[in-house]
Design goal:
The protein is of the alpha/beta class. The chain has 12 helices and 14 strands. It binds nicotinamide-adenine-dinucleotide. Nicotinamide-adenine-dinucleotide binds at residues 15, 19, 75-78, 91, 94, 258-259, 274, 277-283, 289-290, 293, 331.
Length: 356
Amino acid sequence: MTKSYKIGIIKGDGIGPEIVDEAIKVLDAVSVAQGCNLKYTEMLLGGAAIDETGIPLPDETIQGVNKCDAVLFGAIGGPKWDNLERHLRPETGLLGLRKAMGTFANLRPATVYDELVNASTLKPGVVEGVDLMVVRELTGGIYFGQPRELHEEKAFNTMIYTREEVRRIAEVAFEIAMKRQKRICSVDKANVLEVSQFWRETVEEVAKEYPEVELTHMYVDNAAMQLIREPKQFDVILTGNIFGDILSDAASMLSGSIGLLPSASTGRGVGLFEPIHGSAPDIAGQGIANPLATISSASMMLRHALGESKAADKIDDAIKKALKEGYRTGDIADYDAKEVVTCSEMGDIIAEYASK
Ligand code: NAD
């Protein structure tokens, strides 16, 4: 029986529409081949929403996403909207959307494609074969903790986690680890912070429910060093909001180009799947953006939100094949390119390979 899914599409601003169109092209090709049916509903966010409705996050978008099985998103923002008041800016719309969707888990894989080992700023021997996943808690910790105050002579924030907040993000990490190499490194600062001691104890509790998964702990300062020294030692990194913010950006640079890396923000409800980069206004409309991060995000959506791992594998394999054959967009053209292609041509190639 053909399975049918409702997919919310938010193209956004800058290169958003170009890269999302290529991801839809690939999703269409793979879903036909794998016998599932994707129905798309387009929604507005960011600058595009401001131009159309006057605000960055219209009610229709909040209501719309909750009727979907998953949402694929490009990127928002650009100089046109930079001088608006904070509450009217595109970025405020995105933060509001994530909050409204309750996406507490941010998943950021860092994969280094064999063909692009030279694109990294680290030595090829260090990054070759890297395949890790950072699972970052996204809606708690010091970014949201109360009280928070700014005074003339002092300021403070509060790093707070409840047992439920740690449990649910740990469960996400353990479920992911079960489908990978079954190794989790939980990163904290338990030698200094009580909240980290609590984090560690709670993660240990959850670990008892997953006896097959090997759990280790690491202090965040050491983890930052180890990520650069020997990134291949990691499978899944589980961490809180602020540590994850920093470590996931460091991990993303292992791969060489910001145009390659996807992300997923998931929770109890609908998940949001998006490239890690922004709307790249400097190259928008030129047809030269790299669509691979968004196409990979579509693959994560199939795997994590819809349970269509076979279709996701097809996309991941198609990306590897295209890179192996030497197809490169401009951002990675310096690394063993046989043919430099446009955003749309890269989409065509991946769609063709993924449909086989
Ligand atoms: P950016 O990620 O948009 O661009 C940084 C650099 O990387 C640019 O030189 C750009 O051309 C290049 N780049 C990014 N994606 C690329 C791709 N797919 N292919 C090839 N090159 C690519 O970051 P920025 O310039 O700091 O921000 C631009 C706008 O994006 C701002 O308005 C910012 O607020 C917004 N932004 C949005 C998101 C989001 O929507 N999630 C995230 C970050 C930034």
